[in-house]
Amino acid sequence: MAQAEAQGQSGLPASGDGGVRFGGFAFADPPQGPGLFALTRRVGDRLFPVLIGESDDVAATLDALRTEEPALARGLADGAHFMTRDNARMRRHILRDLVGKYNPPLNVEGRTARAAPEIAALVPDRAEGDFPEAVSEDIEVSEADLDRLVRVFYRRAREDSVIGPVFDSHVSDWENHLDLVQNFWSRAFLRTERYKGAPFAPHLGLNLKPAHFDRWVALFKETAAAELKPAAARAAIARAEHMSAAFQAGLYPLGHPERAR
Question: What is the distance between the alpha carbons of residues 34 and 84, in angstroms, rounded to a whole number?
Answer without folding.
Answer: 6
